[in-house]
Amino acid sequence: MTGHAWLLLATLAAAIGVLVLLINSRLRFHPFVALMAVSIGVALVAGLSTEQIADSVEKGAGDILGNVGITLAFGAMLGRLLADSGATERIARVIVDRAGTGSLPWYMAGAAFVIGIPMFFEVGLIVLLPLIFSVARRLQADGRIKGSAHVYLAAPTIAALCTLHGMVPPHPGPLIGVQGLHADLGTTILVGLICAVPTIVVSGPLYGRWIAPRLAVHPDRELVAQFTGVAGDAEDADTSSTADGVARPGAAGAGGTGGVALGWALASVLVPVVLMLLRTVAELALAGSSPVRHVLTFTGEPVIAMFAGFLFALFALGYRSGHAPEKVRESLTGAIKSVAGILLIIAGGGAFNQVLEDTGIGKAVESAATGAHLNLLLLGWLIALVLSFSTGSATVGIVAATGILAPMAGDGGVQNSLLVVAIGAGSIGLNYVNHAGFWLVKESFGMTLGQATKSHTAIQTLVSVCGLLMALLISVLV
Fold this sequence. Notes:
Elements: H1 3-24, H2 31-46, H3 50-84, H4 87-96, H5 104-116, H6 121-142, H7 149-167, H8 172-181, H9 185-211, H10 221-228, E1 239-241, E2 247-249, H11 257-285, H12 291-299, H13 302-319, H14 325-338, H15 340-359, H16 361-372, H17 376-391, H18 394-405, H19 414-428, H20 436-444, H21 449-477
Antiparallel strand pairs: 1-2
């Protein structure tokens, strides 16, 4: 490596250090502001002209918002329609309706898996809290669970939600990776799902079964009442029991019109995913001149697919359910506001990535990694892990790792998709006190700092490691 390449690597290391400092120091810079400041600083140190810096920042931010931002906005609105219509609760309740005590964690993982496809981790957890609280209260009353019934049910929920959030499109992190690494979207979805299933099994039901007897977790009574409408140990008016003695929240409401709403809800969730998968199938199986391929390629574009899913949900779950159009519009506006901060972070990450490319820093990293013979999947996972842990933002970890490794990625194929999954898995690990999700779990379940570490942090780190191992295993097989 040349002296200039070493200078560029030193600049990158300093930039990452400054980024961490700005976000975590007393200044508490917003990640977007920190990313923009670091991007401009790196460009100046690396010798770009002022005109080049402006073009680089604008191009990077604009390109990634065009590719990811609109898709994210549609996804947020789709998730809000599902939540407001009560469809997400129906999905969860139907999945756990006939589960026995031993199989409840598996059904909770299934419920979180379905709900987690269109929803962010925090939103999905809040949606599922009423179900967790209601079922856990009954399990503890029956005395069938040693330790914490709340952890017994929360572990698979957390595992499924964070796995999908970090490793599977159309969530924003994986979409950033797909766009930045030029990976095929459908292939990434398939690979992500293949990696996700065993990851959720190990980190959720299996780990939850082991850790639950070792933790005494009791959520605040008032919070339980707020989410379930039932205070303390009072009987749940909307609960029925089955032969095995396990309560079934909302069992009485599982049929009737709820079944119809459930079908519409599942269709709304699956429309964008199926369209994106059909695009991949068409590109693999149909000739380039095929009209069917052209149609499926168009409808499988992330923006078009999410727009189609959103429009379907808008009429099926919004207007069709009798909600006033003004209320639907207000709700959708709120959904967009809730992701505004994430959109800005993504824009800042895009600017940072473009600066790394334009200054040649990405090429210097590629040269160094090649000389050190580092596995690309492991390197991407490690960079995302360190940055996510140090900045408190999984998005920062993903966008930075994607920008650093983009020059080393190939022209597409399974390996690029595996790299997206590995980077996403890295961003999940070591989720601790500087992450919003950590505090949401801790406070929702009334945990001490140690209990939250043994449950939430441990679960997400297990997800991170298992996701990497699955990606490495598939890379060897293909």
